[in-house]
Amino acid sequence: MKRIGFIGAGSMAEAMIAGLIKGGVYTPEQIIVANRSNKERLTELATTYGIETTQDKQNLAKRATIIVLAMKPKDVKAGIDGIEDSLTNQLIVSVLAGISMRTISSILGKEMAIIRAMPNTSATIAKSATAIAASAQVTTEQLEQCLSLFQAIGLCKVVEEHQLDAVTGVSGSGPAYVYLLVEAMEKAAIEVGLSPQIARELIVQTLLGSAEMIANSGKHPETLRKEVTSPNGTTEAGVTTLQDKGFEEAVIACVKSATRRSIELKEMFAESIASANNR
Ligand SMILES: NC(=O)C1=CN([C@@H]2O[C@H](COP(=O)(O)OP(=O)(O)OC[C@H]3O[C@@H](n4cnc5c(N)ncnc54)[C@H](O)[C@@H]3O)[C@@H](O)[C@H]2O)C=CC1
Ligand SMILES: O=C(O)[C@@H]1CCC=N1
């Protein structure tokens, strides 16, 4: 029986498990999840999804065809140390930000088929924007399996590994930028006289409508923006203020900072794991 095993039982693992079952990619019997020590969390997942839970990672690694690494990046060494003897030709799928394939291979002490993925929290509602990158050992069949895994929780694109830092800066962290925009719009809406409830509903619908226009109208965002903007009208007044306040530069700097941080974290983790391996 093909099985998928998750090491790490947090929010990202749960989002993926929910999407996989809902999308019919795996049945609950085919899913195993392990964590470090929190038995209550495992019981909660077993009760909600009917999946198998364990704290025996070696056994999980032996029985799964795909092993998903879903712990925090700082826990990767402790999380996968000890599973290497259980590995044969399984596919390792890592959702860890800033942990390179090289770092994973160096902890395992062998070259494996590894796919790195950068999803985002909208995976919870099967709307993740995910990008994946595959190591040379990954077969076409394994890549297809991984694509259907992430397509069950949203959209999935294949990129080169070095592009994952940019993906992290754009869509991994991206939901937070949108939430900040909404927080600011809500504050302003209340200041100009709307109730919080009506403000929230109007803003959410505006976001959904705008996203769908970009996705489905076939028009460039700039064209769509110009269609909203009447000469000397209200939008022009608003957009001019945004431009005067450096909105575009701020967004560009934001994405670049997040991308840079992803690169820094990757280098930092690589160094600390290399020095731990040499001890
Ligand atoms: N939250 C986000 O927006 C995104 C997160 N990610 C990545 O997903 C990964 C998981 O994030 P969350 O689910 O938010 O974290 P979380 O903190 O909710 O869950 C982490 C899980 O790992 C388990 N764990 C820790 N040490 C372990 C060990 N030694 N052995 C086995 N299990 C262990 C914990 O018990 C917990 O169940 C992170 O590496 C993060 O970089 C990727 C994309 C977006
Ligand atoms: O903030 C972070 O580091 C993680 C990676 C992408 C989203 N959250």
Automatic annotation (TrEMBL):
Belongs to the pyrroline-5-carboxylate reductase family. This is Pyrroline-5-carboxylate reductase. It comes from the Bacteria. It is found in: Cytoplasm. Its EC number is 1.5.1.2. It catalyses: L-proline + NADP(+) = (S)-1-pyrroline-5-carboxylate + NADPH + 2 H(+); L-proline + NAD(+) = (S)-1-pyrroline-5-carboxylate + NADH + 2 H(+). The gene is proC. SUPFAM superfamilies: 6-phosphogluconate dehydrogenase C-terminal domain-like, NAD(P)-binding Rossmann-fold domains. InterPro entries: 6-PGluconate_DH-like_C_sf, NAD(P)-bd_dom_sf, P5C_Rdtase_cat_N, P5CR-like_CS, P5CR_dimer, Pyrroline-COOH_reductase. It comes from Metabacillus malikii. Its main location: cytoplasm. Residues 161-265 form the Pyrroline-5-carboxylate reductase dimerisation domain. NCBIfam families: proC (TIGR00112). Keywords: Amino-acid biosynthesis, Cytoplasm, NADP, Oxidoreductase, Proline biosynthesis. It holds the Pfam family F420_oxidored. GO terms for molecular function: pyrroline-5-carboxylate reductase activity. It is an enzyme of class 1 (oxidoreductase). Residues 3-98 form the Pyrroline-5-carboxylate reductase catalytic N-terminal domain. Catalyzes the reduction of 1-pyrroline-5-carboxylate (PCA) to L-proline. Pathway: Amino-acid biosynthesis; L-proline biosynthesis; L-proline from L-glutamate 5-semialdehyde: step 1/1.
